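Hi support team,

I submitted a single chain yesterday and got back a structure, but I'm not sure I'm reading the token output correctly. Could someone confirm the output below corresponds to the sequence I sent? I've pasted both exactly as they appear in my results page.

Thanks,
R.
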Amino acid sequence: MIVSLAELGLVARVAEALNVTQPAISKQIAELERIIGDSIVIRDRNRLYLTPIGRRLAEHARAILSQLDRAAFDIEAMARGVSGSVTVGAVGSVAPLLLPEAIALMKSSAPKASVGVVEGHFVSLLPELTAGKIDLLIARIWQPRELPGIQQATLFKEPIVVVVGRDHPLARQSEITWETVSQWPWILPQPNSVARQAVDALFARNGLLPPENTIASASLTLNLELMRKLPAVGLFPDSLARIHSARGDIAVLPLDTEDFLSEACCFWARDKQTSDSTFDLFMQCLMQSASRM
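Hi R., thanks for writing in. Yes, this is the structure output for that exact sequence:
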């Protein structure tokens, strides 16, 4: 109930989501406040806002729900003795964010299950998915569209930011334009990838042609080294950029990327989840990993 209050803000919506009456929700709020000895909500007309104590309580509640979900599929996996295999295709800007935790959850719940990872870009991985060579495709998307026979789900949304090496001249400038950065060498996704199309469109929206001096690379590890050796400009997921910026590896440039490629999705064959218990378990692990972002 407290998590739903934090997310929905209206007693009516919480009651509908939990399939209970509004007086029942109000009674639970009053009981919580009695136990805690302080207010957890502030009422403003029809809306409820959590107090600082209420927000902290909601954080603990989310953690408890997450642990209960983990316990459920952990025990289910052990009871079923899942021991099959799943192969995941993922783009380089998503794999290090989601897969380590998802795979760790999978292996702790089903030690005998095998997980394989293939890196690539959406255009190269989609035929592998439709041919059944990989079970799941995880990619950032641009201009979403329906794919015949394929189901998809959003995993998370996170900005892509523009970065340079710590010694790059642009790293010391506070005011930077797209025209300025377009003059430098760029590390970009592969020319035939969806991500590259999105980059080209981003430059076009800023009234510019795409950079001509480019290096095509999807490897974030390689890109870090390239930016250390060359005065090149690159693109990084925001969370990883902040980590490497704090370490002093790179600097994040103050440019608006307009949320391009911010949405990460997974794709799988429509009949997969109803026939493969190993795949079903991995999907639960993946969704739990995504929910923590």
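A quick pointer for reading it: The radius of gyration is 23 Å. Let us know if anything else looks off.

Best,
Support desk
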